[in-house]
Amino acid sequence: MTNFDLVSQHSDDTICIGKIIGEHLKGGDVVALRGELGAGKTCLTQGIAKGLRIPETYYVTSPTFTLINEYPGRIPLYHMDAYRLSGSRDLEDMGYEEYFYGDGVVVIEWAEKVDDIIPAEALLIHLEHSNGDTRKIRISSKSDISAIIKMLKKEGF
């Protein structure tokens, strides 16, 4: 497992980090976001959407009540939110496998609620509050994320 720790000083940094990640994602990738309320999961997803070239006409918001939002881009983005779920069984009714093993990128907020169905090769990202707007971010994966790490370091993270 490769781990990379970095700090975001502001929401603009978090969006930039997400954009770099999004630029390196390919169809079939799953990104599992973990962290407390307000830690920056949706902000990071907005950056991922930029990296996937989702048109600016689509405003990326957390699908807390709809459970999933779909956005067209270089690769489709399927943005899921497990906050209101009691567990992975709730996702089975949605046919989550079609998303997880399809052609798009799946980003799951509150992934800790559905850990038992997160693919082993998923990109795991934990965000936590530090001071004010500062966030500590840990990126982990069993897959090769060296290109992402290289670009994040190049950008000063």
Low-confidence stretches: none
First-to-last CA distance? 20 Å
Helix amount = 25-40%
Q: Looking at the chains present, what oligomeric state does this protein adopt?
A: single chain
Largest sheet: 7 strands, mixed
If strands are numbered along the chain, what order do they take across the biggest sheet? Answer: 1-7-6-2-5-4-3
Count of helices?
A: 5
Structural class based on helices, strands and sheet pairing: alpha/beta
Q: Which of globular, elongated, flat, extended, rod-shaped describes the shape?
A: globular
User: From the alpha-carbon coordinates, what is the Rg to the nearest angstrom?
Assistant: 14 Å
Strand content: 25-35%
Brief rundown of the structure:
This protein is an alpha/beta fold.
Keywords:
27% helix, seven-stranded mixed beta sheet, alpha/beta, 157 residues, 5 helices, 25% strand, 7 strands
Tell me what the structure shows.
The chain has 5 helices and 7 strands. It is an alpha/beta fold and 157 residues long. The longest helix has 14 residues, at 11-24. The chain is globular. The two termini are 20 Å apart.
